[in-house]
Design a protein that fits this description.
Helix content: 40-55%
Number of strands: 5
Number of helices: 7
Number of domains: 2
CATH architecture of the largest domain: 3-Layer(aba) Sandwich
Order of helices and strands: HEHEHEHEHEHH
Strand order of the largest sheet: 3-2-1-4-5
Distance between the termini: 59 Å
Largest sheet: 5 strands, parallel
CATH topology of the largest domain: Rossmann fold
CATH class of the largest domain: Alpha Beta
Length: 197
């Protein structure tokens, strides 16, 4: 009887320890993905990357109305046969009070890397040197990694900012499905480092 109690206590202790290690690892993994370069006063343009969340465009609209921004770059390829992400972002920008005249739409990109690749001719043509890139919190590390590659080849500096802060507490992150986002983003980051090294 005493032996079973000790075994049960050991199993419960190891289970709690395992849960603690998982939560600590998840917190570290989430923290590592989060980058916020800030917004320098000399910012000339905002670059909104397409994605499933409207918060990226909401943050872009907020920054446009708060800083003296000359250009808003909207990047995103086909959503379906009728519409591109770039067109959807343009509609959201106009709805948020950003004039169409300051928006430049790129509608071929199908990845974070091609967001930058297809937007670089525009950045060069407009002679932009300081561009703030707006994306989701879990996507900022990969965006920063891609931005670093393009900064080495072009005379431009990118500042990556999150559309929202890192979600806390851990229970809320798990409840809201961020576990899948974090794991998925880690795999994508590793894939980018292998593919675009």
């Amino acid at each position: 009887m005493k032996s079973r109690f000790v075994q049960l206590l050991l199993v419960l202790s190891l289970s709690w320890l395992g849960l603690g290690v998982f939560l600590f690892g998840f917190l570290f993994a989430s923290q590592y993905l989060y980058v916020n370069d800030g917004i320098p006063p000399q910012t000339q343009a905002l670059m909104a990357l397409s994605g499933g969340e409207e918060d990226r465009m909401q943050k872009t609209i907020e920054l446009y109305h708060h800083f003296p921004i000359r250009w808003v770059l909207l990047s995103g390829g086909p959503m379906n046969a009728q519409e591109t992400w770039g067109q959807r972002l343009l509609h959201q920008a106009q709805t948020g009070g950003i004039p169409k005249a300051v928006c430049v739409v790129e509608d071929r990109a199908h990845s974070t890397y091609t967001n930058f690749e297809f937007m670089m001719p525009v950045i060069e043509k407009l002679r932009l040197t300081d561009v703030v890139v707006v994306t989701s919190w879990y996507h900022t590390r990969r965006t920063r990694w891609v931005a670093d590659r393009f900064e080495r080849r072009y005379p431009v500096h990118f500042y990556v900012v999150s559309a929202q802060g890192l979600p806390y507490p851990i229970s809320a992150m798990i409840r809201e499905g961020h576990v899948n986002l974090v794991l998925n983003e880690w795999f994508k980051l590793a894939w980018y480092q292998l593919r675009h090294a």
